[in-house]
């Protein structure tokens, strides 16, 4: 998806983002909490964390609450999303910072992170962009750091893939959403890949121990670590 398309798409959803995610993504809040549960750090450790595609800051909020000594940089393409996050998370003061930009540009977010989180965002990248992004994330992490991604995926078996799509569409209908609208947007703009491909690309980028920790139909949580 082109940068302008992504910005326009999410600018329209700022005020209702969290509610929308709950209606179109199975166990959205469960997965967000699990993503934070998977951070392998002591709760008292001072951490520097990058939240990519942060939206209105729901994931950043969970991290800041769980790790009282942590600092989070919320990185998003849509300024309206970041403005919403800044207001909601103002109680965290200087521990929470925002940056508007395209994370495909590695120069924008720098290095020195203990964890990089990507919640429902990497499917906007093409295969080649995602491979490059994984390389950039690896370089941006400190030794011992972790990359965690919650995202839409697709099964390698076309029969299972279609089955998952049908279940997903029913889930959206049952929640009062127009499943045809969201499915067509997904087919038009998103670039989901298999878990096997994700793990392979993470290994190629230098990561160790790529793993899938959770899966619900065509949604998953994947991690990989940068060894000391």
TrEMBL record:
An individual GO BP term: methylation
Superkingdom assignment: Bacteria
Domain Methyltransferase, residue spans: 49-145
Keywords for this protein: Methyltransferase, Transferase
GO molecular function, a single term: methyltransferase activity
Cited SUPFAM superfamilies: S-adenosyl-L-methionine-dependent methyltransferases
InterPro entries listed in its UniProt record: Methyltransf_25, SAM-dependent_MTases_sf
Keyword Methyltransferase set for record: yes
PANTHER family cross-referenced by the UniProt entry: TRANS-ACONITATE 2-METHYLTRANSFERASE, TRANS-ACONITATE 2-METHYLTRANSFERASE-RELATED
Name of the molecule in the record: Biotin synthesis protein/methyltransferase
Lineage: Bacteria, Pseudomonadati, Nitrospirota, Nitrospiria, Nitrospirales
């Amino acid at each position: 998806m082109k940068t302008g398309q992504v910005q326009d798409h999410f600018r329209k959803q700022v005020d209702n983002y969290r509610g929308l995610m709950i209606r179109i993504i199975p166990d959205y809040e469960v997965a967000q909490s699990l993503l934070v549960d998977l951070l392998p750090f002591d709760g008292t450790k001072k951490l520097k964390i990058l939240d990519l595609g942060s939206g209105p800051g729901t994931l950043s909020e969970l991290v800041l609450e769980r790790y009282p000594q942590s600092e989070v940089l919320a990185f998003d393409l849509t300024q309206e999303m970041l403005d919403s996050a800044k207001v909601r998370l103002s109680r965290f003061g200087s521990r929470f910072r925002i940056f508007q930009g395209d994370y495909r540009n590695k120069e924008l977010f720098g290095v020195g992170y203990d964890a990089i989180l990507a919640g429902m965002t990497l499917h906007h990248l093409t295969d080649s962009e995602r491979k490059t992004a994984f390389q950039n994330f690896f370089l941006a992490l400190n030794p011992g750091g972790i990359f965690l991604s919650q995202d839409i995926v697709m099964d390698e078996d076309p029969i299972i893939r279609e089955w998952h799509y049908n279940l997903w569409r029913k889930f959206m209908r049952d929640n009062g959403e127009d499943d045809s609208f969201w499915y067509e947007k997904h087919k038009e703009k998103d670039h989901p890949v298999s878990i096997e491909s994700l793990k392979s690309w993470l290994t190629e980028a230098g990561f160790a121990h790529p793993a899938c920790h959770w899966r619900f139909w065509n949604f998953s949580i994947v991690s990989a670590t940068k060894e000391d």
